[in-house]
Amino acid sequence: TQLLEQSPQFLSIQEGENLTVYCNSSSVFSSLQWYRQEPGEGPVLLVTVVTGGEVKKLKRLTFQFGDARKDSSLHITAAQPGDTGLYLCAGLNLGSQGNLIFGKGTKLSVKP
Amino acid sequence: NAGVTQTPKFQVLKTGQSMTLQCAQDMNHNSMYWYRQDPGMGLRLIYYSASEGTTDKGEVPNGYNVSRLNKREFSLRLESAAPSQTSVYFCASGQYGYTFGSGTRLTVV
User: Fold this and answer.
1) Distance of alpha carbon B27 from its chain centroid, rounded?
2) pLDDT for the residue numbered A99
3) What CA–CA distance (Å, rounded) separates B8 from B104?
4) B89 CB near a chain A CB, below 8 Å?
5) In chain B, which among 23-62 make CB contacts under 8 A with chain A?
6) In whole angstroms, what is the distance from residue B65 CA to residue A13 CA?
7) Could A104 and B42 be called an inter-chain contact, meaning their C-beta atoms sit closer than 8 Å?
8) What is the pLDDT of residues A8-22, one digit of tens each?
9) Which chain B residue's Cα is nearest to A2?
C-alpha cells in the first residue's frame, strides 16, 4: 500500500512568518498534487508537479517535487491569515488510471 | 460555474436507516469518486467510476453501494446506516486533478 506522510500535522504561526510543509513517501509517483481545504468546503487543487526536481510558484507559495519523485514540499513566504486551512498532498501512482492517494494533511493556522 | 454539486449538505440518520447521497458534475469528466473524511484518517476512497457504466471499490467500500446513473451523476447509497459511517462525504470528478464538491456532513445516531 502506498502511503504519503505529511509533516507537520499541525502548524500555528504569526502573520508574516515563513513555513514549509512536507510530503514524503517510499513510493515513486508519476505526479503529485497539492490541495487546500477550508472549513466546511471541499479541497481545492493548488498545483500539480510532474517532473522530478520541478519547482512551481503560485504567488507566495512555492512547490517542489523531489528529484526521485517520492517527496514534495510546500513553502509559504510571509504567511497571511487567508492562508489558514488544511493542506493536502496527493500522489498519482505509476500506471494508475487516475486514482489519487492522499496524505492526512497539515492544518495551518496563521494568526494576525 | 457549478462544478461538482452534492446534496444534501447535512443529514442525521438513525442506525439502520438508508439514504442516498447525490452528486452531479457539469465538466464532462469521465471519472468520478466518493471519499469520506474523518479526523486523523484523511481522505479515504470509498468507490470510484472511471467511466459511465463502470464502478470499482476503493479502500473502504463496506456498507456502501454506488450507481453511475449517467456521465454527470454518481450516487452513493447507505443501505443500513451505522454510527461508524458518521463522517463527511465528498464527491469528486476529474482525471489527474480533482474537483471536489462541498461535502455532505452525515451523522448516524
Assistant:
1) 17
2) 78
3) 6
4) no
5) 31, 33, 40-43, 45, 48, 50, 58
6) 42
7) yes
8) 999 999 999 999 999
9) B59
Is residue A94 pLDDT above 90, yes or no? no
H or E segment to which residue A55 belongs: strand A55-58
Q: State whether the Cα torsion A78-A83-A87-A89 is positive or negative.
A: negative
B94: chain A residues, CB-CB within 8 Å: 98
Which cell numbers hold the place of B12? 442525521
* Predicted confidence band of residue B52 (pLDDT cuts 50, 70, 90): very high
Could you read off the pLDDT of A30-47 as tens digits, one per residue?
899 999 999 999 999 999
- Cα–Cα distance, A110 to A101 (Å, whole number): 27
Interface with chain A: mutation pick from B23, B30, B47, B98, highest number of A CBs within 10 Å: B98
Q: How far is CA B37 from CA A96, B40, B57, B86, in A?
A: 22, 9, 17, 10
Closest CB to B96 among A31, A43, A105: A31
